[in-house]
Amino acid sequence: MAAARTRSRYVPDRGLTTRMVTTMFFIGLLYVVFVGVLLALLRGAWPLILLIAAGLFIAQFWFSDKIAARGMGAREVTPEQAPELHGAVDRICALADMPKPQVAVADSDVPNAFATGRSQKTALVCATTGLLRRLEPEELEGVLAHELSHVAHRDVAVMTIASFLGVLAGVITRVSLYSGLGRAGRSNNNAALVMALVPLVSAVVYVVSFLLTRLLSRYRELAADRAAALLTGRPSALASALTKVTGEMARIPTRDLRRAEPYNAFWFAPAFSSRESLARLLSSHPTLEQRLEQLARISAGLARP
């Protein structure tokens, strides 16, 4: 019974599952190669490298969702404090047959929402005060259904783990450069070569892991839109919320958007978006046009007898 309970009524997405498995495979392979190269270059420092790698992985897996939620200003609220938000979450959870997550609000005029958590038991869904003030009840439910699909599909946990390698690469680079790990037992020439190679290897690892997570991130947003639209049966409400949120972003002070930008991969809609091809390649979200076109196709499909 417990195993069956972990399945929700969200439509399974094989494309998303395939991409998550593929991303995790290549991220894991890259991680093994990265640590192996560091061990070969920094022979005298291998205990410290393994200790840092293991410690950061545990910290990233267990605490990154809490750190992200805190960084975005989420504070847990009771049904008495936010009855509209709790009511919408209750309806979506009942519709999806999934456990209710923790419910939080972020005091920000940026209209947005996000979900974090390693599993359904540790999940948290958060809406900003700006979003709650601007959306109609059906639009809010569409956004929350989108966010809770990330939890049901477990792509939040995969994104958390996948982003770990870039963090590790940066930390290892700093430790190597500022503590002289490569100089142990080597000549000055060898030490200089090692200290030049470590940042190079770290940079390559960071770029590859960044591109892999961006590809997964864009697809998972489309998958969440699709799952939410099919669950609620109201793709037009989600499309309306998307249009409204994206339009309102232009009215938000740039300072507030910059503060939200580091967490773009978590947000329902990015704080900044660009029409330039290179920027779109590196974006955490598909374009508004892509998302609206998909919702229009779903709406047309649901309208057929």
UniProtKB/TrEMBL annotation:
It holds the Pfam family Peptidase_M48. Keywords: Cell membrane, Hydrolase, Membrane, Metal-binding, Metalloprotease, Protease, Transmembrane, Transmembrane helix, Zinc. Gene3D superfamilies: Metalloproteases ('zincins'), catalytic domain. Zn(2+) binds at H146, H150, E221. The keyword Zinc-finger does not apply. The keyword Metal-binding applies. It is an enzyme of class 3 (hydrolase). Belongs to the peptidase M48B family. This is Protease HtpX homolog. It comes from Streptomyces clavuligerus.
